[in-house]
Write a structure and sequence with these properties.
Distance between the termini of chain A: 68 Å
Radius of gyration of chain B: 31 Å
Number of strands of chain A: 4
Oligomer: heterodimer
Structural class of chain A: mainly alpha
Distance between the termini of chain B: 94 Å
Shape of chain B: elongated
Largest interface: A-B, 31 and 28 residues
CATH superfamily of one domain in chain A: Cytochrome Bc1 Complex, Chain C
Order of helices and strands of chain A: HHEHHHHHHHEHHEEHHHH
Number of strands of chain B: 10
CATH superfamily of the largest domain in chain B: Rieske [2Fe-2S] iron-sulphur domain
Number of domains of chain B: 2
CATH class of the largest domain in chain B: Mainly Beta
Structural class of chain B: alpha+beta
Largest sheet of chain A: 2 strands, antiparallel
CATH topology of the largest domain in chain B: Rieske Iron-sulfur Protein
Strand order of the largest sheet of chain A: 1-2
Helix content of chain A: 55-70%
Largest sheet of chain B: 6 strands, antiparallel
Strand order of the largest sheet of chain B: 1-10-9-4-3-2
Chain lengths: ~350, ~150
């Protein structure tokens, strides 16, 4: 008996691996013209893992604090071997992660894969998506540069306009009434400890559900007899395709990180004016642009209050779509959902472009 | 009649009493755990030095038709010397979403880069999203020294 088999037998004797092996052997992935979209969940997972690894590496040199943070990133980028690469990958992967998660989310939305019995998978996925935005927002401040400083002032001030809980929430986020080194310390703790912990729980639940329930099939295949359906084994066929794509993503990431290194900018100065042309990261741009268009006062509401209420309501409806789209859960076509999704995509794309060009 | 398997009579009032004591104890315990955590998360009030006036520099160092940010305690204040040489000072914190404003020579206005808010040289919000005017500060010139103080 070879060493590999011996080790397998040793483990199998203690934790009975047959069940797992049998499960893996019986797991199939449906093959159809929309199969491509199945890969984006895996790509998001891969990018998250890259964030964990590069994030831990950055932690070894990063120092939080008004007089330390910017300098420590400068140190990482100029003195630490391959520090520039690790930091650039972390920044790029963060953006690609949000992009990939967005594609994953919209594909699930248009396929109505959130329908019964996968409501909880959708909810955990959406919560992770909101957290990804939180990761982006909190991580953005950590280099303590000019853009990050004002982005955090604006972002936390927006949180402050939420009725009732706004002000305490803002004080909690800022650790005081202004954005200071105390805010940086708090964001650092939230970014590297609080959110990764919660995210890991959600991710585990999400993956267990996907494994237990299998991949969702498009609705038009539901009436096709089992024999006529095309499928491929998850192990090893689908997994190998997954891994090949991960390799491609890693290469793309390396190219971006090397040829378009992430800039550090200027150190934050609380007594400098906001620089001209300041804008948030692309995934906040459509909301930022909307805020520019809402007048200061709409009826009795402040403009930003209206903005945040509308986006909050929109986000909540989006999160709860499996519960109000009853038709899809009954297996009926629901065209209205497609129009909603199309409207949201167009809105985001158009306002992002307008915000980018402006 | 079958004998032997009768359940003993339940003492309802005793059961209710235990329910209240135990669930009350559980709630008190949860409170004793959660309250300190919430209180810990609330940042303590820092004693702030109350600033009533600051020196903003020498008058001859400031060009006409220009503006600069002055540190007023922990807050930024914008000092503007207009084209005719008069001095004005306002809170530099945009009333929209907390960004720091700047003087725009080309517009002859106070401008916020974050959301394109505009104020005239009296601090009035004239365009864009700002909901309120900027608070004005008092400017006094003592010899060559420019002093900014809070309006009372």
């Amino acid at each position: 008996m070879g060493l590999g088999k011996k080790i397998y037998a040793w483990i199998d004797e203690r934790v009975q691996l047959e069940g797992l092996v049998e499960f893996m052997g019986k797991k199939y992935v449906p093959v159809h013209r929309h199969s491509l979209w199945y890969y984006f969940g895996g790509v998001s997972l891969f990018l998250f893992l890259i964030q964990v690894v590069t994030g831990i590496l950055l932690l070894l040199y990063y120092k939080s604090g008004e007089e330390l943070a910017f300098e420590s990133i400068q140190f990482i980028m100029s003195k630490v071997q391959f520090g520039w690469l690790i930091r650039s990958i972390h920044s790029w992967a963060a953006n690609l992660f949000i992009l990939s998660a967005m594609i994953h989310m919209f594909s699930v939305f248009f396929e109505k894969a959130y329908r019964k019995p996968r409501e909880v998978t959708w909810i955990t996925g959406m919560l992770m998506f909101f957290m990804a935005l939180g990761f982006g927002f909190s991580g953005y401040l950590l280099p303590w540069n000019e853009l990050a400083f004002f982005a955090t002032k604006v972002g936390t001030d927006i949180a402050g306009v939420v009725p009732y809980i706004g002000k305490p929430l803002m004080t909690f986020l800022r650790s005081g009434s202004d954005v200071t080194g105390a805010t940086l310390a708090r964001f650092f703790g939230i970014h590297v400890a609080v959110m990764p912990g919660i995210f890991t729980v959600l991710l585990s639940l999400h993956l267990i559900l996907v494994q237990a329930q299998g991949m969702s099939e498009p609705m038009h295949l539901e009436n096709t007899p089992e024999k006529e359906k095309k499928k491929m084994p998850f192990f090893p066929n689908f997994l190998l395709r997954d891994l090949l794509l991960w390799l491609i993503v890693l290469n793309v990431l390396a190219i971006l990180a090397v040829f378009f290194p992430w800039e550090l900018g200027h150190k934050a100065d609380p007594f400098a004016s906001a620089p001209a042309g300041i804008k948030p990261e692309w995934y906040f741009l459509f909301m930022f642009q909307t805020l520019k268009y809402i007048p200061a006062q709409v009826f009795f509401l402040d403009g930003e209050v209206l903005g945040i209420l509308l986006f909050g309501l929109g986000g909540l409806l989006w999160l709860l779509v499996p519960f109000w789209d009853r038709k899809s859960s009954r297996g009926e076509q629901n065209q209205a959902i497609n129009y909603v999704g199309l409207f949201v995509i167009l809105y985001i794309i158009v306002l992002t472009i307008v915000g980018w060009v402006a | 009649m079958m004998q032997g398997s009768t359940t003993p009579p339940v003492n309802e009032s005793k059961r209710d009493f235990l329910k209240i004591v135990l669930s009350g104890g559980l709630i008190a315990w949860a409170g004793a755990v959660i309250y300190p955590i919430l209180a810990y998360l609330k940042p303590p009030k820092q004693a702030e030095v109350e600033v009533s006036s600051v020196k903003a520099g020498k008058l001859n160092e400031m060009e006409k038709d220009s503006g600069k940010i002055v540190k007023f305690g922990t807050k930024p204040v914008i000092l503007i010397r207009s084209a005719d040489g008069s001095l004005r000072a306002f809170s530099a914190t945009c009333t929209h979403l907390d960004c720091t404003v700047q003087y725009r020579k080309d517009m002859g206005l106070i401008w916020c880069a974050c959301h394109n808010g505009r104020y005239d040289l009296n601090g009035r919000n004239v365009a864009g999203p700002p909901p309120r005017p900027l608070d004005e500060y008092r400017v006094v010139v003592q010899g060559e020294e420019v002093m900014i103080s809070k309006k009372v």
